[in-house]
Amino acid sequence: MSRKHTTATLTQAAVHYLSHKRYSCHIEIGVEAWGKKRLDVLALNTKGDLIGCEVKSCPADYRTDKKWKTYLPYTNRLYMVFSQKLCQNEKFMKKVRPELKEHGVGIMMLSEKTGYVQVKLNAKKRQVDPTVLQELVLRMAWRGGESRRTIKRRKRLYLNNLD
Question: Which candidate, 58, 81, 68, places its Cα nearest to that of 11?
């Protein structure tokens, strides 16, 4: 399976898991202006809790991503999403698990047996600055609605007077 396909599958699995937990999920959403920092998945519930997910398809993907720590102030909980094969790689997990635990980041794993995501390490809950929360909720609302992002071309529409 290609890295691109693995990433897409892990992303969808995380979205389905969080949706089932009654979160509204947004894929590839910028947490800073102009998309300088984009989380793979950002989920919001009705209590205003934000969960972020960074999908990692292979060890190289994890090692080259230096910005995941900068996502911590934007989420109440942050998770890394791995495949079961990656979680079973003892050499990789021996290095990764202590680092993630130190920063309060959790681990989600897509099970090959069940096809569902399981939480392998719970993320530590932290507070999000109310201004940041408001900005992210507004950005998520904007992205969720019809906008220039979803409507590519302006159309002329007429109401014919049929009276």
Answer: 81
